[in-house]
Every structure is written in C-alpha cells, then in structure tokens.
Amino acid sequence: MTIDLQEKAKRRCSWLPVLEGRQGSRYQALADALSEAIDQGELQPDTRLPPQRLLADALGVTTGTVTRGYAEAERRGLVAARVGSGTYVCDPQINARPNFYHLQAEGEESSLDLSLSLMVPSPRRLQGLQEAMQSLIQDPQQLAEVLAYQSERGQPQQLAVFCAWFRRLGMAIEPEQLVVTDGGQHGIFLALQALLSPGELLVTDQLTYPGTIAAARELHLRHQGVPLDAEGIDLQALERLCQQQKPRAVYLMPDQNNPTGVCMSAARREGLVALARQYDFWIIEDAVQFMPPEFRQQRLADLAPERCVYLFSTSKILAGGLRVGVMAAPQSLLPRLTAALRAHCWMAPPLMVALTCAWIESGEADYLLEWQWQELQARQQLLSEVLEGAEYSRHPAGFVVWLHLPGDWQTGEFVRAAADAGVRVLGAEPFSVGNQPVPRAVRLCVSPPASREKLREALQRLQALLNSPPRGRAVF
Length: 476
Description:
The chain is of the alpha/beta class. The protein contains 17 helices and 17 strands. Strands 4-12-11-10-9-5-6 form a seven-stranded mixed sheet, sandwiched between helices. Strands 13-14-17-16 form a four-stranded antiparallel sheet, with helices on one face. Strand 13 and strand 14 form a beta hairpin. The longest helix is centred in the last third of the chain and has 23 residues, at 364-386. It starts with a helix and ends in a 10-residue tail after the last helix.
C-alpha cells in the first residue's frame, strides 16, 4: 500500500488507534486500544467503528487482523456486530453481553425492577425455609450426613425425593437418571462441557438465555442462533444449518423461551426430535422456568430420552439462593456429567440439597408452585390491560414479556428512558446470538414487583413512554 492511500484511509476513519508500543499480537493490541478508548470516553456507546477494510488500510495491517481484533473486543463485551450495519460500541451500563447478571444495585431500592426473571415475592418462602431448617435441626443423623462428602450425583434418598415430586408434577423421571447441580446455570455449563468440545457447534434459538451465551463463550464453542416464531424454533432453518455444518447439540427452552415467552408447539417438538435423530445431535431441554401441566406440551426428554438432557431448578420456585437444581440424562451420559461436576465442585452442597428436600417433603413447594402459577396468570392479565395496543409476545402463565418497540424508539434509548422513569428493563442485545440484527425490543419480567399494584405502576410508566416520542424528537 502506498503512503498516499494509507493517509487517505486515515482521514476517512472516525476513530484511529495507536498500536505501536503495545504488548501482544496486533489484533490483541487493537482490542486493548478499543477497551482504553471506551474507558476514557473517547468512544461513546452506540458509536459505529470504522469498517474493517478501511481501518486495516489506515493501520497498515491485514483485514484479518482487524477482523480478529473486533472479534476479540466482541468476546469481551465491548462491541457488537450488526449484520449489514457495522460494529458498534456497547453501553457498559446496559446489556453488555457477557454481563447476564443484573441484580439491582445498592441505592436503587426506589426503582421498579422488571429486569429479572425471579420467583414472585411471598412471605410463605421465608416460612417454608424456616420450617425446613427446623426439621433438619431436629434430625441429628441427617445433620451429620450433610457434613460429609457425598456422591457426585447426590444421596439416593434425595434423588428419590426429587423423583416423587416430579411424579406429582406429571413427569416420569427415575433416580438412575438424575444428577444434582448447583442450580440451573451450573446444569447448563455441565451439559455443554460434557457434550461438546472446544470449537464444536452449539445451536440455540436466535434469542436465548444470556447465561447460555456466556457459557458457550467460556467453553470456546461455536455458537449459532436459528430464528424462531410463535411456534418455536424454525425447523427448516435448522435443517439447512444441519446440512451445511454439524451441530453437536441444540439448546432450547421449549415451554417458555427466555426472553420471548414462546411455547414450542407439539408439531415442532416432534420435528426437532426427528432432525436430532437424522443428524445425530444432542438436545438440551431447559425447564428452569417451569410451567403448570395445563400449559406444557410433552417434554422433549419423553420424545427422545436417548439423546436429551433435561435441566430443572428450584430457583424460580423456592429460592434462588439455595442454588439447587437437577438434570436428568441417559445413563450412558452420566459418567461424563459426573466427571464434569467433580472437576467443578465435587458435589452440590449437601446442606442446601437437604434443606431443599425437606422443603419439598413438607408440601410447601407444591403450594408455592400452585400459588405462583395463579399469580403469574393474574399479572400477565394485568399487563394485557395496562399495555393495551402494544405489540408483545408472552406465555399466559409466564415470567417474561417480549415487548416490541413502536415508532422511532431504539432499544438503548428506551431502556435509558425507562430507567429515568424509575423502571428497569433489559434490551434485546444480551439475548441475541451472533451477528444477526438485534431486534428493537425489550424484555419485561412481571414477577419481581412485591405486589400487583407495584407492577401496575411500573407498566403505566412504560405505557406513557410507548405513547410518546423518544426524548428530543418532535412529532410533526
């Protein structure tokens, strides 16, 4: 490249880093320079970065170096690529992709938080925990047992308690299939680690749980999203992908996709299982956001027991702080799952598992489930009344609502405007897989507010925003 051409490229670049004097390879130096520019305020959120070829010409490096540098910055959550549009700086305060953990910050108690998919608040949970702890205290033998190392899969009597509970919930799962985990996120990580090697392909819905995106990144998996509609994953698109590549596993939330709330139809479930057998991939079925029997289709694990890992957790039912979940898998897969679990933590904490089982055996878990389902349905009905005319998808007994933004609202500015109005929501970016265009949508969760009145107040504030133009834009 001539000096004249390089100088012309430099003048056309909206941002030009200095790579000389930095340690590591050129692409790592570019990612480091991006990080510094963002930290120092030189690059603001939503800033479009120079096209890769143009920046490569300006820096005197190959296009591949810039491509790798941008990819490394995206892996760090600094930028996001948008197909047909370019690469943009992420807002560190809103929706940075690796940061799928969004607990309310201190000093924000006055805000109305609709950002987290949590269990519905109830004083019965504290009461149930106290009673479970009391029953454990009164059983010296069991107390002594929880102080000792346990089998990786959990104690036989605890596995039996879970299976008896599942039978009451309409699921036939045997103790020989179960492994106790440190919650649903741990189950996702273990399943991915046991089923896929670095570089192998994981397929999910195009919009999926951010924890799975983060786990795939940490395990260095290739991760590709497939579009979904009102019936679930697009099977034709999935089959085209299977013909071109070789997915090792498909991860889905068939009863309630997070964030869209979509429930996968019976026909799609049967079609998915047929594809899994034809193209020989595993199915990871996430049922952490558990649905009542009348709103559930047949489990994928029942349709394809030989190739499905089923994930369940008590986090959305009893308490997230217990960190107790289970996964059911074919017996042939259990050695790999238990080996992965041993490498992580040896075993789920026996004390937490014992408390959870005592809670289940008391009958309080069944009560909380039934009460929560009814409360969620009431809250979803309230949302349909307050957000009348809005476009959204949701499960009628679900935790989440996928709200499509009207008019000129962009996702980031709506999230910021909602925060200014005292309502916390999440934009689409943390849920979006790969480099596909990010929808103009936000996820609302109806479960966190302490009461329906608080939920109504939050929804009314959002409705006011939906009915007004973005700040600083006039309507003519």
